[in-house]
Every structure is written in C-alpha cells, then in structure tokens.
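Query structure, 222 tokens:
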C-alpha cells in the first residue's frame, strides 16, 4: 500500500500590527486642570547642587573689591582665583562668606594641604559664625530641622509634665526614684492608659494606708 499524505490547509502569514508595544501601552495624557496650570506657571525651579556651588559674577566682583585684587593668603601676588573655603565637595556653596581670593600657587597649596584648609575654615568660622558656607536653601532646611527638633522637645516636655503625678505616686510606692526604662514605659502610654493607671495607684496606696492604721484608732469611748 502506497504512502498517502493527508491534505493540510495552507498557512497564511500573520500580518504584523503597525504599532509597537510601547505605542500600544501608551495612554492618553489627562488634561491638566486650570487650577494646577496657574500653580505651575508661578512655580520657579530651584538651582541644583552644582549651580549652588558656583560663585555668581556679582559675588566675585564684591570679593575682588574687598581684596583689592591681592591674594588674601600670601598678601603679595595678584589674586586670580576664587577659592571655596569650605570645599564644594563637602557642600560648600558659592556665597560671599565662603569665598577667598587667591593666587594660583596659594590656591593649589590650600587645596592639597588639609591642615592649611582647616586653618582657613576655622578663621572663617570665627569671622562669620558656624555654617558660614550655607546659602538660602541650606538655611531654610536648617531652620526647618531646628523647628522640628524643638517641637519634639516641647512635646516630650509636655508629656513629662502630664505623667508627673503618676511618676510621683510610683516613687512614693516604690520608695525610690524611677529608672529610665520605667519612665520610658510611662511615656509610651496614652492619656487614657495613664488615667487608668493613676486611679489604680491611688486605690492601691489608699488601701495600703488603711491597712497600716491600728485597730480602734480614731474611735473614742463615750
């Protein structure tokens, strides 16, 4: 019997879609609301870290005028460079209080000598105060952190005042001052828990005081 081949329909090549996967996934952008457009129109982008490290032309001009064009290190050569007293690599900004006009040799010497670098940092700290290299953004962030730290300290102080009566009751009951971990345990309680705990302590101390009164004390015969 001869071999028979069964008939199969011809395969038609699939037509590739005209759009790519990225185009398929791409969604239509939602229109920006009018109120948001108004906010974005008034928004001003802040300078990046690199830009904040550069000395503006007006700052350089002021430094040149203050130094009379003479190197502020050797006091002899012409000042041709503006040095970051607190280095840019350590987030020293391009502000006047962080600028020092130098000649190239003095600039190179300070850059490669950590002891000399620290000398000028110390001198500028004495002259302009701590964080003399800060710009406006640095001060905003610093003041914000200081305010947040103060709020935490005030809340902690207020919390200690609120649990002070309970601490005094516990000190009286234990006959000693409370340990740090015991105070922290009280601080972790909320107001409702503190109130319940305080009432319990008052009941315990009251019952203890009654037990210590001698029998018949306070009663008089007619």
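Result returned for the query:
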């Amino acid at each position: 019997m001869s071999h028979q081949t069964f008939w199969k329909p011809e395969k038609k090549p699939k037509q590739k879609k005209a759009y790519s996967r990225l185009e398929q996934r791409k969604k239509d952008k939602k229109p920006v609301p009018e109120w948001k457009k108004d906010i974005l129109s008034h928004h001003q982008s802040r300078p990046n870290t690199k830009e904040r490290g550069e000395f503006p032309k007006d700052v350089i001009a002021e430094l040149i005028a203050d130094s009379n064009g003479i190197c502020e290190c050797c006091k002899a050569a012409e000042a041709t460079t503006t040095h970051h007293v607190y280095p840019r690599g350590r987030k020293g900004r391009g502000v006047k209080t962080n600028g020092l006009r130098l000649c190239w040799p003095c600039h190179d010497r300070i850059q490669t000598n950590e002891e000399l670098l620290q000398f000028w940092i110390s001198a500028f700290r004495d002259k302009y105060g701590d964080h003399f290299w800060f710009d406006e953004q640095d001060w905003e962030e610093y003041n914000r952190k200081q305010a947040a730290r103060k709020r935490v300290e005030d809340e902690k102080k207020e919390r200690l005042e609120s649990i002070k009566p309970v601490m005094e009751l516990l000190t009286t009951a234990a006959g000693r001052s409370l340990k740090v971990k015991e105070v922290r345990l009280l601080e972790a309680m909320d107001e409702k828990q503190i109130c319940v705990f305080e009432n319990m302590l008052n009941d315990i101390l009251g019952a203890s005081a009654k037990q210590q009164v001698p029998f018949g004390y306070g009663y008089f015969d007619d």
